[in-house]
Design goal:
This protein is of the alpha+beta class and about 400 residues long. The chain has two domains: about 180 residues, no CATH class; about 180 residues, no CATH class. It has a six-stranded mixed β-barrel with strand order 4-5-10-7-9-8. Strand 8 and strand 9 form a beta hairpin. Helix 11 runs antiparallel to helix 12. It is elongated.
């Protein structure tokens, strides 16, 4: 009967006799496991960031953009022709049962000035429903109201980035800024949101009543023109129904004939989420595969060193065979040694992966998420590498002829 405990003791004694070589042999596994954990943590962190960005907007949101124009046979892209207006938003809210709220948006860039400070930012004109549809809270002050929209009042709310750029640590509420030379009173400060799915800073924004943006800041090509319309459905399940009903309604309002292309586009957040998740999933797989190469290299290193060890210990093997050790005893000893090297390397690699992941999160301000699955996968893979690459040296050792082994110098 095989005494596995004695075999482990013999293997550990053999590895301790060559500590530096054992460590260098395990180094490939250490780096491989650590790399796999870091890469998968970055991939999971990217998925988490996308999910947070989606939740900050709401999972039951749809975005309607104007259509695209074609010049010289080239499509100019969505929004290149103005086809949406305030009346479209009003009709959507009135006529579509699956719609909870609607926020028309008129957006352009402009310079905002406060005393001797200035910043170029996005000016977004909208209605009070904008705050609910975008799930955007106000941390200081108050929002503008329908009264401000009807009177095209010169009031605004500022995002976190604009607040820092213009006011530093000062409270901006009640102060006056100039947008394109026009004075605006600040009513409130928007809560911090971070980057959107495209990587743009959502906090680099000034929000004004939509009529103010249309009439007193930028002007429009035709009355009531908007840049896009954000729609909030009653729940996530209503997205597809609402999308179909909105498409039918807008085609009717815009007098689009059957067979003609829409002069608008409708996309819901779930489509953005699906696309983003597929991208991050592919990225995670690629990163994991790249990191796994280190494990394979480490496995080859283990096999090479174990083959050298077999050569160095040929006489020892001959003695053990001569005193009655079976082929399987010799095979198991060398196999256990290679597995121990892989397991120890895997454990150190896991600790290295934890440390490296948190270092990445701290220094590049990127979220990382270490999952139990990635740890178990890396550790299991490291153990399998030890078994796979340790088998041939163990097999070669067990096949030595006892007489030839004893004669070996």
């Amino acid at each position: 009967m095989i005494d596995i405990f004695s075999t482990v003791k013999i293997s550990l004694r053999a590895l301790r006799s060559n500590k530096l070589r054992s460590f260098l042999t395990s180094l490939g596994i250490i780096i491989g496991v650590g790399s796999v954990i870091v890469m998968l943590a970055i991939g999971h962190g990217a998925k988490t960031r996308i999910a947070d960005q989606i939740s900050s907007m709401g999972s039951n949101i749809m975005i309607i953009r104007p259509g695209s124009s074609i010049r010289g046979g080239i499509s100019m892209g969505s929004g290149s022709i103005p086809t949406l207006k305030l009346e479209d938003a009003r009709q959507i809210k009135i006529n579509i049962p699956a719609v909870k709220d609607v926020a028309p948006i008129f957006s352009e860039g402009a310079q905002v000035v406060y005393q001797n400070q200035n910043t170029l930012t996005s000016i977004q004109g909208s209605t009070p429903s904008y705050f609910n549809v975008n799930n955007w809270k106000i941390i200081l002050g108050e929002p503008f109201t329908e009264r401000h929209v009807k009177s095209a009042a010169k009031v605004c709310l500022v995002g976190n980035t604009v607040t820092i750029n213009l006011f530093g640590d000062l409270n901006p509420v009640g102060r006056t800024v100039r947008i394109k030379g026009t004075p605006f009173k600040i009513l409130g400060v928007l809560d911090k949101k971070g980057q959107d799915l495209r990587g743009f800073d959502q906090d680099d924004v000034v929000l004004v009543p939509i009529t103010t943006a249309q009439k007193k800041l930028f002007g429009t090509m035709f009355p009531g023109m908007v840049s896009m319309i954000m729609v909030q459905t009653v729940d996530e399940e209503a997205l597809n129904t609402a999308e179909e009903d909105i498409t039918k309604l807008l085609r009717k309002l815009h007098s689009i004939k059957k067979g003609d292309d829409d002069d608008f586009s409708v996309r819901n957040i779930s489509q953005f989420l699906e696309t983003a998740q597929k991208s991050t999933q592919v990225m995670s797989i690629l990163l994991g595969c790249i990191a796994s190469v280190s494990l394979l290299v480490g496995g080859i290193g283990i096999m090479n060193i174990m083959l050298v060890s077999v050569t160095e210990r040929t006489r020892e093997i001959g003695i053990r065979l001569a005193v009655g050790a079976k082929m399987w005893d010799i095979r198991l000893q060398f196999l256990v040694e290679s597995v121990i090297l892989s397991v120890i390397g895997g454990l150190i690699g896991i600790m290295l992966g934890f440390f490296a992941s948190h270092t990445v999160a701290r220094f590049i301000d990127f979220p990382v998420k270490i999952s139990i699955e990635s740890i178990l996968l890396s550790f299991l893979f490291a153990s399998m590498v030890g078994i796979f690459f340790g088998f041939y040296p163990a097999y070669k050792a067990s096949k030595l002829n006892p007489i030839d082994a004893l004669r070996h110098e």
